[in-house]
Design goal:
Blueprint (H helix, E strand, L loop, with lengths): L1 H14 L9 H12 L11 E5 L7 H7 L4 E5 L3 H14 L4 E4 L3 H4 L9 E7 L4 H8 L3 E11 L3 H7 L1 H7 L1 E11 L2 E10 L13 H4 L3
Parallel strand pairs: 1-2, 1-4, 2-3, 4-5
Antiparallel strand pairs: 5-7, 6-7
Length: 211
């Protein structure tokens, strides 16, 4: 099924800019490996997972393929990318995946999404403080947020301490590893208490005025 996913991604990339036009199959397999590394850090079996800014399907699609007993909600605001993901899920027959076209900060306000998920994942979307404001409101108390980061992870964590304090999060672990000769890490944040009701802020405020 991973091979089918890679094939669909390469074909889809010819029609729209899902990944770099020059991306090779080897590079895509590195993205897959990067996504799958989370299973070495967290046991995903049976969890309700929300992936924000799903784009071309990393990390959620490889994780959903590998964890059929978990449920995944993929949130993507871009119309073309969300349509690609919906078609991809249908072609792969992934019954444990739902794709929603929406802005995550709007979903975070709604009762059926707020404090609902065991785990929120996020790869290559925004700075850490922004990810926290968007993601922690939809995580259950005692749930986790997993953010994929590169060599600047430590700097981003230090800069996001205010956001962690306000939103009730605490960095539990930073898992460092190497993919294709590049330093990578996944930052695991534990949600210790409910987020204040005014978060997430709408209108792109998390990016314009980070906590």
């Amino acid at each position: 099924m991973i091979n089918d996913y890679i094939r669909e991604l390469l074909e889809g990339n010819k029609k729209q800019n899902l990944i770099s036009r020059r991306a090779t199959e080897k590079e895509i397999r590195e993205h897959v490996a990067d996504s799958e590394y989370l299973t070495k850090v967290i046991d995903l079996k049976g969890l309700q997972v929300l992936d924000m800014g799903s784009g071309q399907g990393f990390p959620a699609i490889p994780l959903a393929i590998g964890e059929p007993e978990s449920s995944f909600v993929l949130v993507e605001s871009d119309l073309k990318k969300s349509m690609f993901l919906k078609e991809l899920v249908f072609k792969l027959g992934l019954r444990n995946v739902e794709v929603i076209r929406a802005r995550i900060e709007e979903l975070g306000e709604k009762g059926d999404f707020r404090s609902r998920f065991d785990l929120v994942t996020c790869r290559a979307v925004a700075e850490m403080s922004v990810i926290l404001e968007w993601g922690l409101p939809v995580v259950k108390v005692n749930g986790l947020l997993a953010a994929w980061k590169g060599a600047r992870a430590g700097e981003e964590i230090r800069a996001s301490q205010k956001a962690l304090d306000i939103l009730g999060g605490k960095v539990r672990r930073v898992a460092n590893y190497d993919i294709g000769g590049k330093e990578r890490c996944i930052v695991i944040v534990h949600k210790a208490k409910e987020c204040p009701p005014q978060f997430p802020r709408r209108g792109g405020k998390a990016k314009k005025r980070p906590l």
